[in-house]
Amino acid sequence: MSSEALKNLNFDMGKVWKLAFNASWGSFVFGYNIGVFTSCQPSVSATLGWGGDKDTYVMIMAALMPLGAMFGALSSSVVARKFGRRKALMITDLITLLGTGIIVIPFTPLFAIGRFVTGFVAGMFACLVPLYINETAPLEVGGKVGGIVQFQVTLGIVVAYAIALGLPTGDYGSDPVNYLWMGMFAFQSIFALIQFFLYMTVYKKETPLWLIENKMYNEAFGSLKEVYTEEEASRILKRLEDANKRSVVEIGVDSTSRGDEEPNYTEILTCKRNLGKMIRLGCLINFFQQFSGINAILTFSTSIFGSIGGSTFMARVFTLIVGVVNMGSTFAVFPLIEKVGRKKLIVYGGIGMTLCLFLMGFFSGVLTSAGPAPSIIFIMLFIAFFEGSIGPICWIYCGEILPARAMGVCIFVNWFSAFIVILTFNLLVDAISMSGAFFLYAGLNMLGAIYFFFDMVETKGLTKEEIKKVLINR
């Protein structure tokens, strides 16, 4: 957006970014939980005495995080509807403190419970943050501001990888620095506290849409004035009131008597009230985001780089570089989301990820004589394509097309897919080799690109009401 256009805005762009940034601390915690266990697995194993069963415990503990996130995703819509988006985020902050307090106790059953609880938190944040930002950011900058979700996710991953460089690379049982892993897991609680404090003292207003849905019109007007000029706030309030009154009239002929009631879980799961297209897109964009193979690479990146070639410390360095590339790529996609559109970026990104994974498989299996460099380069390129496409767009798109309950269901699909990917990756490598796993994920990415080319609806420049009309008429 040009400087001249910025001068003519009828909303405070600085306030928009502040609201989004504070909400996105939840995304940071979400990302940190993805990365924190990756590089400290040997340290945790030594402290908890996993011994020869280390690989089994690592697989289980890695999978417990997305398992907890599945339930967090489903719970998020209930909490968000009952208490509001802001209070739901604050409740999630408190659960974060509980989870980190449990996980640092050096006892395997408590570590497992802590992994599940912090995963539950990640699932809650994955739904709540995009929902909050989508309901507070103006349409003109929704895609750009929404990109901060994925940026904070990737920043959390990078910070976790960077701290792990301080861990020992051997002699885990006697080196006192080994216990740094406890501090690593506790570190995320700082950001939950920051977010909770700011919502208590600075950002005290709920999102306008939730207030209108609960017929709190004066409060909704006050919330809108936090971002918009008074005149524009009045105009948007009337538009949102009108949209809320007819919000589900178009969603099936049986809904006219139901006022502004949101589709229930039975209607979502059976795709009634003309919800089929909406739910199909929401579920499949989450499915293909995870079955791109991204979390297999991020969760097991240290062991992947170790198997390709290199010492433990260098494997951690390469893992950190992956995180930096992951984060840096999100900057490039911010302006492209509104200029190019969601659909083109996802299709082109899917093709790019397919090529990278195919070449990773080729160089890690068929042509190993080329050394580790080509595989490492294509892993980095794969990350860049992911973060330039389905990585951030999945969260933005779901926030645009889905009501709260449906979003919880679709994010459940995301975390269930992550659970399957993480739980089966090592088994897959044992069965068909590392290169075979890369070839398999290459095929899934190509399948996703084809699907999105034919079925995805572009939402660039559309309001939530316009998107709903487009989707229910397909």
From TrEMBL:
One of its GO terms (cellular component) is membrane. Its main location: membrane. One of its GO terms (molecular function) is transmembrane transporter activity. It catalyses: D-glucose(out) = D-glucose(in); D-fructose(out) = D-fructose(in); D-glucosamine(out) = D-glucosamine(in); D-galactose(in) = D-galactose(out). The chain crosses the membrane at residues 16-37, 57-76, 88-107, 113-133, 145-167, 179-199, 281-301, 313-334, 346-370, 376-397, 409-429, 435-454. It comes from the Eukaryota. Keywords: Membrane, Transmembrane, Transmembrane helix, Transport. It is found in: Membrane. Residues 19-460 form the Major facilitator superfamily (MFS) profile domain. It holds the Pfam family Sugar_tr. InterPro entries: MFS_dom (IPR020846), MFS_sugar_transport-like (IPR005828), MFS_trans_sf (IPR036259), Myo-inositol_Transporter (IPR050814), Sugar/inositol_transpt (IPR003663), Sugar_transporter_CS (IPR005829). It is a multi-pass membrane protein. Homodimer. PANTHER family: PROTON MYO-INOSITOL COTRANSPORTER. Belongs to the major facilitator superfamily. Sugar transporter (TC 2.A.1.1) family. This is Hexose transporter 1. It comes from Stentor coeruleus.
